[in-house]
Each structure stands twice: as C-alpha cells, then as structure tokens.
Specification:
The chain has 980 residues and is mostly beta strands. It is built from five helices and 74 strands.
Length: 980
C-alpha cells in the first residue's frame, strides 16, 4: 500500500493511466532479460484462502515475515496499527495500545508495513508510517525496534532533505530499511536507510534515460535486493506521473532490472522475499490493464531467470491487492460489499527450500557437511528430521548469507569442533556501503552440541539473526559482526557436564518473557558475553553441578543491560539461597549459605555452620575441596558433617585436664592425711584402744623427720555429653613422688613432682588427644589441737597432641595439632580429728581453685584444619566429707591401716568448656565450640589400706572414685612411703 488509503490509491492509479492513454504518450521502458515467461491464473475458488480481519471497521494486511503479519484497521479519521502472530493467532495493537492515537504515540493515524523476524518484545523490527496533527497531511516514517533501549523503541524516519514531504518506510531486512519520500504528490524517490549508521541514501530508477526520473518507490528489501516501482513518463505541468514498472535493484553491484506483467500497462512490486533457493525470489505486485482494471499477482523468478506470474483475485471481491509475501504465503487486502478485509493464502509451487529433511542424516567423517546451503538457500529440517554429525570439525547445516534455516526437528553435533548450525559468508561493499546481509536461523526444534562442539557457530562477517523458540543445548558463538541479533523465546543453555562454557554473541541479545536461559554453576560457571546490548526478561535457570560454589557468578556481560530475569528454583541444597544482582553491563548470581540455620542442629553444629556461612558469604570463602563436599550434602546429612568439622575435642579436653587435676590434688592431700595419722595404731591384743571421743592429735615426735614417698596412679573414666557435645572417655597413668619434713612446731612441709600420660577419645567424632604432663607442687599442714589445716598447690605443664578424622560423605581429611596447656591449682582443707573406740573420725571441708590456660595452635592437614586461640578457664570446688580410719596389727610386727572417705563435691565457675576456633584455610570463619561439661555435683569416694612393713616403710593400695550424673572417674593407686 503506497498511498494513505486503499481506495485513494486505486483511484489515483486508474486516473493516471487513463489520462496517459488520452494524451497518447505511451512510453517505452526497458525490461529484464527473460529466459521464459508464463502467466498462471491461481484460482482461489479451488485453492484455500482465509479472511483475516480485526474487528469490523476494515482491516488492511500490509506485511509478513515469518510468523509476523502487520497491518492496520480503520479508526475515525485514519488507521491504527496491528500486529498478528500466526503462532498464537493473537492480534496486538501496535506499536502501542492506543487506538485514539492510531496506536502510535501522539498520532492521528498510523500503519506498520514491514516486519522482520522475532517477537515484539524481542528483536522484532517493523517499519511503517504515522501522521500527527503537526505533520498533517504529510505522513512520516517510523522504525520500531523491540530490542532498542527501553523508551527508545520508536524512531522517526524522515529524509533530512528540507523539502521532503511524505516519508513512508515499507520494508526492512538486516540493517537496511527501505521506503519512499516525495516533495509533492506527483514526484518522489526511494530511500535506503542504514539502521546501524542512521544514514539515508536516495535511490532513483531512470528507466527511460531521462535526466531526472519522475518517481521511484521501494516497497521491499530482501538480502541485497530491493523491489518497488518507478515511473519515467512526465505528463506535463500539473499532471501526475505516468506508467509504472516493477524493478529489482541489486545493492551489491548497483544495477537494476525492470519487470512488467505481460498483460499490464502498469506494474508495481509491493514486496520481495526469497523463494528457497539461491537466485530465486517471489515478488507480490499489483498491475493494471490498459482500461484501468486492477489485478493482483505474484511473480516467481527461478534461478535461471524464468518468470511465472500467478494472477489471483479473492472470490467475490470488488478489488484485490497483494501486499506482501513470505516464502509461499501471500497476504493483502480486498474489498467487497461488507467493507475492507485482510486475506492470506499459500501458493506451494513458488517456494521450495534448497533442502528439506524429513529423515535421519548421519555424517561421521571429519570436516563433513550434512547440508551445505549457498547464499540465498533455505533449509528446512522438519519435525521428523534428524541430523547428527560426529566427525571432527564437521557441520550439520552450513548456512550462508540471506539463507533462512528452519529447524523443527533435531540437529546434533558431537565431534570436536563440529557445529549443529554454522553460518559462513562475508559482507560485501555495495553501492550503499557494506552489505552485511543476514543469515537467519529459526529454531523451533532442538539443537544439541557436545562440550567440545557448537550448537551455533558464526565466524563470518555477515550478520546473523537467530530466533529460538525451541531448545538450544550447547555452546553458541556468533562472532561475525555487531549486526548479529539473537532472540531467545525458548530454552538456551548447556545441560551436559564438563568444563564451563562461554557463549559469545557479538551483537544484541534479547530474551522474552517466555524464554529461559540456563547456565551451569559449580566449580566454574557458564557465561554469556554480549558484544552489544542485552535485553532481559523471562527466566534464568541456573543448573547446579557438583563442585565448589562461589559467592558470586557473573553470568552475563554486555555493553548495555536492561530488564531483569525471573530466577527459577535451583536444584541445590536447601541451605543455599540465590538471588540476582545487576549492573549497567552485567548480571550475576549471588549465593548465600545458611547452614547454621538448618533446623535440628546442636549448638556446636550451628556454630560451625554459621562460621562456614560467614566465610562463604562475607569472608575468604570455603576452601575448594571442603566447599564442594559441603554443598553436595543433603539437609539430613549436614548435622553429622558439621559435627565432624567442629573441633569439639579441644573444648572437651579442657574438661579432661581440669578433671585430671583432681588426681594430683588428692595425691597431695592423701599424703597430708597420712602424716596426720601416722602414729594412729591399734595393738593386736586390743583393737579398740578406747580413745573414747578424744581428739586424735598427731605427735610430731612420733613421725620421722624426713619422708620420701611415691604414688602410682592408673585411672579411667568418662564425661557424658549434653546433647550438644559428645561423650569423652579415656585413661591416665602416672607417678608422683614427694618428700616432706615435719617440724617441731607441728608443721609439715613437702614438695612433689610427677609425670602422667593420658589418652582421651571423643566418642563418635573420631577424635583423640594424648597428653604428657609434668607437674610440680608443694604442700603443708598444721595441727592445731584436733583441728588440722592442710593446703597445697600444683602446677602441671601439659603437652597435648591431638588428631581428628574430619570425614563425612564426599570428604575425608585427617588433621592434627600439638600445643601446650598449663594447669595451676591451689587447695586447702580443714579437718577435725577424733577417735571413737579405736576408729579415727574426721569430718572435713575443703576448697580448691583450678586455673587452666591453653596456648593457641594450628592444625596441620587438609582444608578442615582449624586454628585455636589461647584460652583461660577457672573452676572452683568446695567439698564436705567424712573420713574413717582404723588399724590393726598383722604378722606380729606389722600394722595394717584402713581408711574410707566419702565427700560431696560442688563445682562452680567455667563448667562448660569452650574453645575459640576458626578454619585455618580462610578468613572470617571463627566459631566457638563447647565441650563435654564438668559435673556440678559429685560424690568423691576413697577406700584404701596402708601396710607398715617396718617402722619407716609403708606401702599402700587405694581406690578413688568421682561419681556424678554425667561423670565417673575410677582410679587405682599404689603408694610407697619411706621415712628417715
């Protein structure tokens, strides 16, 4: 449609033609060299056709490309634009929904004319015209680009020449739009608009050789060909231009050919499209007989130049006009008694793809090509078609410039360097600049590529258009030029395992609301690099693969980025949350670990989880091998795994060291008690010396002046966990030796030294500690009548060696450490000694303070290694108890002494040990682990016997036990005392 209304145009043409006949000035025009020419009457009474109307006010269909049909409908005072999807069969007000403005912002009337491939919110480009109050009665051209910067989708097209009036854009292909403009209604020129550079060029066809051609229009562009009409007869001042001829202009070489319907006095091409093979085209046209009778036709040009005109009329119509064609589909407008209508039908004979695949093709040779299309060749792989190439550098479909590759089936590339679809061809310099004529892929099927292959590869210099409504599973590399345009309205990504994939598109990328971009994340991540702008919508579906996770994954980069994705659920652990972050040029996936908040964790497990969360989220990250194993765990596996990493042993070992201090303390107190009762004897004859209730007072003179003693200790025991910490158990063995002296003032002073070795196991955690301890202490006692004061102090230097198996599903690590710890303690006891019927009785009360200092340490081993900070713990003990002792003579000259002690011990202070730990392989991963707690209340039991084998030598055996709800310690002791 090259005038504002259908009726005006035909009346105008008819008047021009009749006026020319009356003037007797029929011109002579050159025609294309034609090998053969035929006219076929395409009878729509016997061939199917469809009326395609929007509403009831009148519908005009003006352009078609792929599934897109554009047109307009009648509104008061003009027309309003329409876009129709043949895929969804939905009409859309276009380019905006505002019928009061002709569906164009601020307009009175508008109409789109020429669409491209793609969807409205994808890469669709449409050219058309509009009229405003200010421009009226002049029409202005426009370009709609769905992938332009939001808010800048519409560009007015008006040749910058000062005296330009009407500007109507009719068609676009690649980076070019064509149309026509005029200075007044009788003359005009075609224009070529470069959408990349913004440059306008004028095209005038001078068929008769006149110095100044009268009128040229450009109604269609496809590849490097422009089609339209020109008039070269001037009827004089005040008259309209005369006879019209169709033409095809070749932009690559700057020449044209003229075409005229054999029965026409007037021929005008309304559009051009490829016919499936190189050098073949279909052109829709309107032509008129000499008497002004209008007709519609489609011209099919074969590769050898043969011409076939397919004349048609819509049955029952008053007038039929053909406006556009794509492949073999024709659209246009007709009028009848009911008004104006759009129509659509197919002429199967005029479109035959270069290759139509309906079967299975398998190519196994290196560098093999299953289907090789040349410039302008179309390929159709049907839903039943399958193409598989497995050779190195092989190609399933090789596409060229101006080719349309339509895939409805499956195409797979499995060989190294192979490609499912590869675009070849180079841009050329034509009359109006560089011709980056476009190859097109319309994928509604499946493209598969192995990790070393390509789903789509374009490495030429011609532009590439990709519209994906199917599935692309493999690497995409389109590096030809900035004219590449890629729309994803399907699924695009990689599902296979292997190294990361970098998709590269040198031009523009637009994903629509129904598109899904799937990028793998794990140890690395797939990325999409866009050389121009990226327009985002639809879904981003990260695919989680086994491997370490990063805090941030840059997924997409572009020179300009607008829009956002909807993030699909990710098949990854429930304790990891994902979100998207955007800059002006990039989109990234950000992960946040939340292991510490998983339900059902113990305190230590939660502390470890929180530390790992902090390292991952804000710190130095989690070391790779540990990272990969942790994020492969299910929520049910997580608690035990965090337990294995906790280093809880270091806290529990504090309890053990404080607990072991009791044995040294009791050894010195036991020696002091032995001193107090060293003269308490009962004869063989009278076991009850009838002391009555008199207090037992040790006689200084009866005790040796200097005594050396030794005690061997062997103990075993355990501390129960508390639901947070695990049980610990172990044993200790050692020797304590001492010497003491009694003074005349009833004082006793002594020194003691010792060595112990202990072994602790943290049950269920595969953790153990071995401790070698050297100790030194002093003690003293004072008898004040029946009251006995006893006191002492000990310092133990502990050399601790630990080893842990930090293992859980998917991870095995053994770590170890060695560090020193010091245990200092002060203790005292006050007792009251009495005797009753040969039995010594002693109630007592005691206090003790134990201080433990541990040094910092660093574990050695793998990524689970911890480092620990120094710590200090203080525990106080009070005790109340009662002792009973007696003796008897045995073997004539030997005395056997028996004693029993029972006490209640109450502990206070740091009963719940804590270790400040951190993962050594990162930063920001500090946590505190709690160990097995000390008992607050315990019973102390001491049962033993001493045998004086001579006046100065005593040997003894005893049992000592600590019993509590969560603790038990049993110790066997053997002693030797030698007085001088």
């Amino acid at each position: 449609m090259w005038q504002p209304t259908f009726h005006h145009r035909f009346m105008h043409v008819r008047t021009c033609f009749v006026s020319t006949l009356l003037a007797g000035t029929l011109g002579v025009w050159s025609v294309a060299s034609q090998a053969a020419e035929d006219v076929v009457n395409w009878d729509l009474n016997s061939n199917p056709w469809t009326t395609l109307d929007f509403g009831t006010t009148g519908t005009f269909l003006t352009g078609i490309r792929g599934d897109n049909i554009v047109g307009n409908y009648v509104i008061s005072g003009g027309t309003a634009g329409l876009l129709y999807s043949q895929d969804t069969m939905v009409w859309t007000q276009f380019p905006i929904d505002a019928s009061s403005e002709g569906n164009y912002p601020g307009a009175l009337s508008s109409s789109p004319y020429g669409p491209s491939f793609g969807s409205q919110l994808g890469i669709l480009r449409v050219v058309g015209s509009y009229k405003t109050t200010a421009s009226s009665p002049v029409d202005l051209g426009y370009l709609y680009d769905g992938a332009a910067t939001p808010g800048e989708e519409l560009t007015t097209l008006s040749d910058p020449t000062d005296d330009t009036k009407f500007t109507i854009a009719h068609s676009n292909f690649g980076s070019y739009a064509v149309g026509n403009y005029d200075e007044h209604l009788s003359t005009g020129s075609a224009f070529i608009y470069n959408m990349s550079t913004g440059n306008y060029d004028t095209l005038n066809i001078n068929g008769s050789g006149n110095a100044s051609p009268i009128s040229t229009t450009a109604y269609g562009v496809y590849g490097d060909k422009i089609a339209g009409g020109y008039a070269d007869v001037d009827l004089g001042p005040g008259e309209d231009s005369g006879f019209e001829h169709g033409y095809i202009y070749d932009m690559s070489i700057g020449t044209y050919e003229t075409y005229n319907h054999p029965s026409a006095a007037f021929t005008h091409f309304e559009g051009i499209t490829g016919a499936g093979k190189a050098g073949e085209y279909n052109l829709v046209a309107d032509w008129f007989e000499a008497d002004g009778t209008p007709h519609s036709t489609v011209l099919h040009i074969a590769a050898n130049g043969d011409l076939t005109w397919y004349d048609f009329d819509i049955p029952g119509s008053d007038v039929t006009s053909s406006n556009s064609a794509y492949q073999g589909q024709i659209i246009g407008v007709y009028t009848d008694a009911d008004g104006t209508h759009g129509y659509s039908f197919e002429i199967p004979a005029i479109y035959t793809p270069f290759y139509t695949n309906v079967t299975s093709l398998v190519i196994g040779t290196d560098s093999g090509v299953a289907i090789e299309a040349m410039q302008g060749d179309d390929v159709l792989n049907t839903a039943d078609g399958s193409i598989v190439v497995s050779g190195e550098n092989s190609i399933a479909i090789s596409a060229n410039i101006s080719s349309v590759i339509t895939n409805e089936g499956m195409v797979s590339a499995n060989g190294d360097g192979s490609a499912a679809v590869k675009f070849v061809g180079s841009s050329r310099v034509g009359t109006y600049g560089t011709l980056g004529t476009v190859g097109t892929l319309l994928n509604d099927g499946v493209l598969n590529a192995a990790s070393s292959a390509f789903a789509i590869l374009a490495d030429g210099t011609s532009g590439t258009t990709v519209v994906n409504t199917g599935r692309i599973d493999g690497r995409v590399v389109v590096l030809n030029d900035a004219e590449a345009r890629f729309e994803n309205s399907g699924w695009f990504g990689v599902t296979g395992s292997g190294a990361k994939t970098d998709h590269e598109i040198s031009g523009l990328f637009a994903q629509t609301a129904i598109g899904t971009l799937a990028l793998r994340i794990g140890g690395g991540n797939d990325e999409l690099h866009i050389g121009d702008a990226a327009r985002l919508a639809g879904t981003l579906s990260p695919i989680f693969q086994q491997g370490s996770l990063a805090r941030t994954y840059t997924l997409l980069t572009a020179t300009e980025l607008t829009g956002t994705f909807t993030l699909a659920p990710i098949d990854m652990p429930s304790y990891v949350t994902a979100s998207l972050a955007y800059t002006d040029t990039s989109a990234a996936l950000e992960l946040e670990a939340d292991m510490g908040s998983v339900s059902g964790l113990t305190g230590d497990q939660g502390a470890v989880g929180n530390a790992l969360d902090m390292a991952f989220n804000t710190g130095g990250g989690i070391p790779d091998s540990l990272n990969a194993a942790l994020f492969a765990l299910s929520e049910n596996q997580l608690p035990a795994s965090l337990n294995a990493l906790s280093g809880e042993l270091y806290a529990s070992e504090q309890s053990v060291l404080i607990k072991e201090a009791l044995l040294g303390r009791e050894a010195l107190l036991e020696r002091l008690r032995q001193i107090s009762y060293s003269s308490f004897n009962v004869s063989d004859v009278d076991l009850t010396l009838n002391y009555g209730d008199a207090p037992v007072v040790a006689s200084a003179s009866s005790a040796p002046g200097l005594t050396i003693w030794a005690k061997g200790i062997a103990s075993w025991g355990s501390i129960d966990g508390n639901g947070n910490s695990s049980d610990v158990s172990g044993g200790l063995g050692g020797l304590i030796v001492g010497t003491d002296i009694a003074t005349a003032e009833d004082w006793n002073f002594g020194l003691a030294f010792g060595y112990t070795y202990s072994d602790t196991d943290s049950n269920g955690l595969s953790s153990s500690a071995q401790v070698q301890t050297g100790l030194i202490g002093g003690y003293a006692s004072k008898d004040i009548g029946a009251v006995i004061l006893r006191a002492g102090g000990l310092y133990s230097l502990n050399y601790v060696d630990t080893d842990r198996s930090a293992s859980f599903p998917g991870y095995v690590d053994t770590v170890e450490a060695d560090y020193r710890a010091g245990t200092g303690q002060l203790f005292g006891e006050v007792a009251y000694g009495a005797a009753y019927q040969g039995v010594a009785l002693e109630p007592f009360a005691g206090l003790a303070w134990v201080h433990l200092n541990t040094q910092d340490f660093n574990e050695s081993g793998g990524d689970a290694a911890l480092m620990g900070s120094s710590s200090n713990s203080d525990v106080g003990y009070s005790s109340l108890g009662f002792r009973i002792a007696t003796s008897r003579k045995v073997m004539t000259n030997k005395t056997l002494k028996l004693h029993v002690s029972l006490a209640w011990q109450y502990a206070f202070g740091d009963l719940r040990p804590e270790a400040a730990l951190a993962f050594a392989g990162t930063t920001g991963a500090e946590f505190t682990a709690s160990g097995a707690p000390l008992a607050r209340n315990a019973a102390l039991i001491d049962v033993g016997t001493n045998l004086e084998i001579s006046p100065n030598v005593t040997v003894g055996l005893s049992y000592f036990g600590e019993l509590a709800q969560n603790t038990h310690v049993s110790a066997g002791q053997a002693s030797l005392t030698w007085g001088f």
